[in-house]
């Protein structure tokens, strides 16, 4: 394995303290709003209306729990001339007015666009929401300009158009805003990875015959919440013959001696996510399993070596094998296996790196990006496979890795 530097960004702990400089949340909030304004000013849009939960948190720093994740009942707005506004679920609006002094209290109000169709458009809720939005646009002097929208129900789009609003794509604006991380975001992302470092050590000690894939998922959830995670979005837990092809979902399969097993831990700390694969073998490893792991590591190292400002994403994608070379009929069906993706308040941010999209539509790697690189190598035994994933900060000096649980060689848990 090639030697790559680890990130110098600290992972100081989950609490704020008076005796050490940690995350500056005021700076974080101001930075994120400024990034959205910067991108807005480079478009012909008068404002951007947001329904996607990660976008709402990025702009407004509001959060009401993951039961509300992307259900569409919350929405936020910022215009070229105004401050962020949030229409929130019921009493959450009043709570924001009490708990968030950095937000104008008049800009946190209740809203409802029908709960994904559970309340029909005949109720008039969608029409009312569109009228309120149109009123704000007119009040802030941008009523005659297009409005960017990230994602919304069809009934909401129709209501906005009926209110005389020209609807345009607002999602790309938000993806561009979110692609460069400041020091506070990098610290939060590093802390999130540090928590997963610890979970992987627990998994390494826990793996043995008779443990189920679902038992590992339970362990990961418990430990992450004990360490301060606010949400565990997913734990991929895959073993034995389920490794190839990757099914992307855990089961209750019992792990047996000699099984290869890989895991992906996706959780959220203070709004920022991880995506972090590691592979083990239980009891004993075959040469086929070791060869697959070595291949996944070589593809990973070749990609990391190219991570620096000015590189384009097609250069990274080209060092990975074509889909047909590792058992898939097309890049569409192999998507997500040899893969890179930005990580932040969302799991999949810019840049997305793969042979499916990057060869024909590359983008430039920039300082301040933070993304994950993933590789997958099936074993010659027809059942095992290896997955490795590293999260990387792009710096002027090159790549800095923040996923620190050992991945240089295939680790054998409870070796016989």
Topology:
Layout: H1 25-40, E1 47-50, H2 53-60, E2 75-79, E3 85-88, H3 92-99, E4 108-110, H4 125-139, E5 147-149, H5 154-162, E6 167-169, H6 171-178, H7 183-206, H8 213-227, E7 231-239, E8 260-269, E9 272-273, E10 276-282, H9 287-304, H10 313-318, E11 339-342, E12 349-353, E13 370-378, E14 385-395, E15 398-401, E16 411-413
Parallel strand pairs: 1-5, 3-4, 5-6, 10-16
Antiparallel strand pairs: 1-2, 2-3, 7-8, 8-9, 8-10, 11-12, 11-13, 13-14, 14-15
Helix pairs in contact: 1-6, 4-5, 7-8
What brief labels describe this structure?
alpha+beta, single chain, 2 domains, 16 strands, 416 residues, six-stranded mixed sheet, Creatine Amidinohydrolase, Chain A, domain 1, five-stranded mixed sheet
What does this protein structure show overall?
It is a single chain. By secondary structure, the chain is an alpha+beta fold. It has 2 domains: 124 residues, Creatinase/prolidase N-terminal domain (Creatine Amidinohydrolase, Chain A, domain 1, 3-Layer(aba) Sandwich), CATH 3.40.350; 231 residues, Creatine Amidinohydrolase (Alpha-Beta Complex), CATH 3.90.230. Helices cover 31% and strands 21% of the residues. The chain contains 10 helices and 16 strands. The two termini are 25 Å apart.
